[in-house]
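Handout, section B. The chain below has 172 residues.
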Amino acid sequence: MNILVLGKDGQLGNAFHVLLDSLLPALADKPNIQYVGRSECDLADATALSALLKKLQPQLIINASAYTAVDKAETEVDQAFAINAKAPEVMAQYASNHNATLVHYSTDYVFDGEKYGYYLEDDIRNPLGVYGKSKAAGEEAIARIFASNTSSGQYAIFRTSWVYGDGGNFIR
């Protein structure tokens, strides 16, 4: 199995690297895992991402990458949407067309925070800022592509509130 982990330089991508590498010795059928970061593929470049997917032919795509500079997204709108909306759309299109699985990480910023209690996966998105809007657009693109009659792949979207680990984060 070919596995592609995007965002290897970030906290989540690094955590996947550590986890998957620790599992490899116990697996009889070793997967081919590619870890890709910014230096290998600029996710703001949809053409480069498409070429990477075509070259590596993953059966599992783990999108641990994102444009996460919430405040800067207000002035870097195109960059935020390219990475958080267009790139997941390209990944979903590939997965859908190649019977692959896409695991995508999103955020609770897709909501406005006005709900009392826990959000559910089918609650209405109502992002307040560019970062949340870009992440919501990525979620919507993934769902739209996989909802098409021609889709043969599958996907999961995980929304997180905070990510922390090695690297800069709210705890440090």
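Note. The first helix runs from residue 11 to 23. Compare this with the example in section A.
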